[in-house]
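From the methods appendix. Each design record in this collection lists the tokenized structure first, followed by the designed amino acid sequence. Records were kept in a plain field format so they could be parsed without special tools. The example shown here is representative of the layout used throughout.

RECORD:
FOLD TOKENS (283 positions):
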């Protein structure tokens, strides 16, 4: 097994991290409650998680500075210093967006997340020291600190990739649930009363079937944000609210009304035929 992957799995299981991880998440949640700022940092307006996009800037500038340190000459010193400084500035909104995502995690994801954040904080400190050393004319010390910062940042980046690609943070949790393309019976019509929602399974997909204001509505039941069960959420004013993190979706079309979700819920057509509720994926 890959050594780094094995270490990441050990972090997932390290319950001793929970007190610190939960304390940080609780503090962030108090500052970033549901609302416009949370939506901005989550990437709701973008339709995509904002954090991975922002990480390109500090990673790119610090990597470029490292290449200049290793292979550049006297004439590249100023450029390397400016790149380090730009990366430091870019890391601030990047960290804010990452903390916003982190506050919505639990258990293993939160443990990996707090180590990811700690490594990035150390890297930021090292690059801060590197920038100050360069400003004082101590380019040798600046290069050493920069190389150390790049090493720590690389470890942090690995855990960031693990969170996203292996643990599903920041991805659409309905991506692989297609559901039926043809009309498929799922419930008796009498099983869904006004203001009620039921979870059904159809062709490998979990689907919420609800009756709201006399209309049948059907959406993917797993919240696109982190997989919360929408059928347990509150329905009002033509919307449903995820019970886990408060994302709000339109019942008719699954549009995101309020984040932290970024992707809309897949919507299904629903009808009653011979006393049975039938659904099919909306094209």
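DESIGN:
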């Amino acid at each position: 097994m890959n050594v780094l992957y094995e270490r990441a799995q050990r972090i997932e299981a390290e319950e001793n991290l929970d007190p610190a991880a939960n304390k940080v998440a609780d503090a962030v949640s108090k500052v970033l409650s549901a609302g416009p700022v949370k939506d901005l940092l989550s990437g709701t307006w973008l339709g995509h998680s904002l954090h991975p996009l922002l990480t390109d800037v500090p990673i790119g500038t610090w990597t470029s500075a490292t290449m200049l340190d290793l292979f550049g000459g006297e004439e590249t010193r100023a450029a390397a210093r400016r790149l380090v400084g730009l990366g430091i500035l870019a890391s601030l909104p990047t960290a804010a967006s990452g903390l916003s995502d982190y506050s919505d995690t639990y258990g293993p994801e939160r443990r990996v997340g707090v180590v990811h954040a700690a490594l990035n904080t150390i890297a930021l400190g090292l690059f801060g020291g590197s920038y100050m050393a360069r400003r004082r004319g101590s380019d040798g010390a600046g290069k050493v600190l920069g190389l150390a910062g790049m090493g720590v940042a690389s470890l942090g980046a690995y855990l960031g990739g693990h969170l996203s690609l292996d643990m599903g943070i920041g991805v659409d949790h309905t991506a692989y649930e297609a559901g039926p393309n043809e009309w498929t019976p799922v419930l008796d019509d009498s099983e869904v009363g006004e203001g009620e929602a039921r979870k059904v399974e159809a062709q490998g997909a979990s689907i919420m079937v609800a009756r709201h204001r006399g209309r049948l509505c059907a959406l993917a039941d797993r919240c696109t944000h982190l997989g919360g069960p929408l059928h347990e959420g509150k329905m009002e004013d033509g919307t449903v609210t995820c019970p886990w993190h408060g994302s709000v979706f339109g019942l008719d079309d699954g549009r995101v009304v309020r984040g932290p979700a970024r992707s809309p819920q897949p919507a299904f057509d629903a009808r009653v035929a011979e006393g049975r509720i039938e659904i099919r994926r909306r094209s």
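APPENDIX NOTE: The radius of gyration is 23 Å.
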